[in-house]
Write a structure and sequence with these properties.
about 375 residues; alpha/beta; 434 Repressor (Amino-terminal Domain); 3 domains; five-stranded mixed sheet; 19 helices; about 55% helix; disordered N terminus
Length: about 375
């Protein structure tokens, strides 16, 4: 037989119990005798011979000692029988092959951890979710602040973008109005001071024809926010990677700046990791405009004036600056830390930053919606 035709397989697949029965018959023993010699129960021996209990390493050692073969002999008999039997069920082999393909091509494990897809290995259900999120679709043209990503990161990033695009389709939008958005942008500082400023600014963005929702980032994507075009509307996504109001307001201002400056390309998708100081022209433009919206220069000038007032503590300086510039204390604290790097670990400043999670309206929480959809599918 040529090497390319594979290995010979026995015409009849003989269970290991038949070999044990042959050994017993040759010696004139019964199952009870074997149970006593193996120091185990008659039930265990009977289950092994009937093929209802497998051959473990310890069992193989005992059988080899009793009948004069090596433990490998008995393990090989058992494993060969099991492999041949499993190959008689093609759908099982096919399912394993399909699951391997899905896990290699898509971030199935990470999506399951998020519960964006059901925690199942049903190939049909998993494929339905891949089709639903259009994970096979070529992702939007991406400009990313995070630089070149490794292949694994690109798979996660592309999956996140396609899922975000699916989420965008769950809302209805008014026609995009650039003039209204520009007016809103220069009033951002006013929203930061309002008790319900976050909900109000999201509603006003919707009135400008700008979509907004939150969707947490996937591992190794390091995203604070994103902006992309969905049909004829710009969409802002906030990941709340950092649970702080200053991060929310600057990310929002940055994405609004992208829309006002760069929304001519309907295929454009910009992913932002704001931890990185980018040298990219469009990122620098967006940074500068976002700082203008949030009165960054005014805040820094005010802090400079207060810096040498040694009779004032940091918290008082921040509060005075907030009142003078008309912007919330958490943003002033964040700008203080960004300008004076040595204060990043300052507890007083960190305590002035409020958590954002509980302030974001539930109806824009797409993680919750995706989880609920996956739960319904699982039941």
């Amino acid at each position: 037989m040529s090497a390319g035709k594979g290995k010979l397989k026995p015409f009849i697949n003989i269970p290991v119990g038949e070999f044990i029965k042959d050994e017993l018959e040759f010696r004139g023993w019964n199952q009870e005798d074997l149970a006593n010699i193996m120091d185990t129960s008659l039930k265990t021996v009977n289950q092994i011979i009937k093929g209802k209990q497998g051959i473990t390493v310890q069992t193989a050692i005992k059988l080899g000692t009793i009948f004069g073969q090596s433990p490998e002999y008995w393990l090989n008999l058992y494993n060969t029988y099991c492999i041949i039997e499993s190959e008689k069920v093609p759908e099982e082999k096919s399912k394993t092959s399909e699951l391997r393909r899905l896990y290699e091509k898509y971030p199935i494990s990470e999506l399951k951890k998020k519960y964006w897809i059901p925690k199942t290995n049903d190939v049909t259900i998993l494929q339905n979710y891949i089709d639903k999120y259009q994970l096979d679709k070529e992702p939007l043209k991406i400009a990313t602040r995070t630089g070149n990503l490794e292949n694994s990161d690109q798979m996660l990033r592309n999956a996140w973008v396609n899922i975000a695009e699916y989420c965008a389709g769950l809302f209805e939008y008014k026609p995009y109005n650039k003039t209204k958005l520009l007016d809103l942008a220069y009033k951002l500082s006013d929203y930061t001071l309002k008790l319900n400023g976050i909900e109000e600014v999201i509603q006003d963005l919707n009135d400008c024809g700008v979509g907004f929702f939150t969707l947490t980032h996937l591992p190794k994507t390091y995203l604070d926010g994103a902006v992309f075009s969905y049909k004829n509307n710009p969409i802002i996504v906030y990941t709340h990677r950092y649970d702080r109001t200053d991060n929310f307001w600057f990310t929002l201002a940055h994405e609004i700046a992208h829309i006002l400056l760069h929304y001519n390309d309907s295929n454009l998708c910009i992913l932002d990791n704001l931890d990185i100081r980018s040298e990219d022209a469009i990122e620098m433009q967006a940074d500068d405009l976002a700082k203008e919206f949030l009165k960054n220069d005014e805040v820094i000038n005010c802090l400079d004036k207060l810096w040498y007032k040694n009779d004032l503590d940091i918290e008082t300086k921040v509060k005075m600056c907030s009142k003078e510039t008309g912007i919330c204390q958490s943003l002033v604290a964040g700008m203080f830390q960004f300008e004076f790097k040595s204060y990043y670990r300052n507890k007083t400043l960190n305590n002035m930053k409020k958590k954002i999670t509980d302030m974001l309206p539930e109806r824009y929480d797409l993680d919750r919606i995706l989880v609920n959809e996956a739960i319904v599918t699982s039941t």
